Amino acid sequence: MAGISRFRIGGLIAAGFVAVAVLFYQATPLEAREAEKPGDSVRGVTLWADNCARCHAMRDPKEFRDDQWRVIVSHMRVRAGLGGQDARDILAFLQASN
Ligand code: HEC
User: What residue numbers bound the domain in which 13 lies?
Assistant: First the structure.
């Protein structure tokens, strides 16, 4: 009997840890869960050349300010079907070149 109740208490404690872990995981924003690295403008220039002139003429990085590029890339990322890291790399390139 003593063995069973110790097992039950252990199970309850384990379930408690799992519940707390799940709560913490859900409280973490999605962006923070992706292993996020800062944008790499060297990768960004190639990604920009490969992806950003498919639908329209290439837009000069100097046409927009940093904050405008942030908004534009978040829209164009969806149109271009780019992953988060690729979009960050392109944004880093555009913001370094304007
Ligand atoms: C799948 C097609 C497609 C791809 C790929 C694409 N764009 Fe666009 N882009 C559009 C369309 C359509 C518009 C105009 C309407 C809109 O804003 O959705 C546009 C508009 C723009 C504008 C004008 C915004 C303004 O307010 O004047 C800029 C700048 C731009 N795109 C930059 C980019 C960059 C940078 C990339 C690469 C990350 C990119 N685009 C990739 C379709 C695309």
Answer: 1-33
**97: pLDDT strictly greater than 80:** yes
Express each pLDDT in 22-45 by its tens digit.
777 766 665 555 567 899 999 999
Say how many domains are in the chain: 2
Pocket around ligand 1 at a 6 A CB cut-off: 51-52, 54-56, 59, 72-73, 75-76, 79-80, 90
Task: Tell whether 49 and 74 lie within a shared domain.
Answer: yes
94 alpha carbon – ligand 1 mean position (Å): 14
Please give the Cα distance from 90 to 51 (Å, whole number): 10
pLDDT reported for residue 37: 87
Check which CATH number belongs to the domain holding 47 and give it. 1.10.760
Q: 1 pLDDT exceeds 60?
A: no
Q: Is the dihedral of CA 28, 34, 35, 39 positive or negative?
A: negative
